[in-house]
Amino acid sequence: MCNVKNVLLVGVGGQGIILASKVLSSGLIDSGYDVKMSEVHGMAQRGGSVTTQVRYGEKVYSPIIGKGQADIIVAFERVEALRWLEYLKPGGKIVINDYAIPSATVLSGKEAYPENIIEKMEAKYEDITVIDAANEAIALGNIKAQNIIMLGGLIKSLGIEEINWDKALKDNVKEKFVELNMKAVKKGLESGVKEKAL
Question: Which of 122, 129, 176, 181 sits at a 20 to 30 Å CA gap from 195?
C-alpha cells in the first residue's frame, strides 16, 4: 500500500475541481495506474465546499483518504486550504491558489475573511507552492482556466510530467476549450517550478 499516492483537491463550487480531478484520473489510468476517485459536492451550486479525492498506485482498494493521509493537498481557494489541513500527512505537500472567494457568512458580515492565510501556512509548512492562478488564467484569456493551471502545479509537484496530459485534456474537455487548457497546464507546470525564497 505504500506505493499509493493520496491527492486531495479542495475548493469552492464552480471552480472546476471535479473536471481537474477527472483529467488527472484519466491521465493516470492511461499510464497504467490503478485509480480511485471520490467526489463530495456539499453546497457546490451555492459556492459551498467541494472536494475530490484521487488515489493512485499499483493497486488501490478504496477512494477514501483519511485524516493525516494526504500526500498532497491542492487548494483552489485560500480558506479551503485551512479547512482541510488536518488531512495532510506529516511532510506532505500543499499547492495553493492565491485566491479568495468570500463565503455567504463573510459576505453578510457575520464573520471576517481570515487574513494572511498563505503567510501563516508558509511559516508552518516546508513544501508549499503558491500559484496566482486567477491572474495567470486572465492572461490566457479565460479566468475559468484556473482549475487546469492548478492541475499543472499538481502534476509538477507529483513529478508526473511524462504522462500525456494533452490526451487527457482532449478526452475530458470540450473541443473548443482544449487549446486553452493545454496552455493552462503548461502555465501551471511553470508556476509549480518556483522555489520558496530562503
Answer: 181
Asked if residue 197 belongs to a domain, the reply is: no
Q: Is 166 helix (H, G, I), strand (E, B) or coil?
A: helix
Phi, psi of 141, rounded to the nearest 5 degrees? 105, 0
Single pTM value for the model: 0.93
Q: Render pLDDT for 15-65 as a digit per residue (tens, 0 to 9).
A: 999 999 999 999 999 999 999 999 876 654 556 889 999 999 999 999 999
Q: Which domain holds residue 165?
A: 5-191
Domain count, the chain: 1
Cα–Cα distance for residue pair 144/70, rounded to 1 Å: 26
Three-class DSSP labels, 78-141: HHHHHHCHHHEEEEEEEEEECCCCCCHHHHCCCCCCCCCHHHHHHHHCCCEEEECHHHHHHHHC
Cβ contact 22:43 at 8 Å: no
Residue 135 lies in a domain: yes
Domain membership of residue 122 (yes or no) is: yes
Q: List, in sequence order, every residue forming a beta bridge with 1; answer none if it has no partner.
A: none
- Calpha distance 187→152 (Å, rounded): 7
Identify the residue whose cell numbers are 492565510. 117
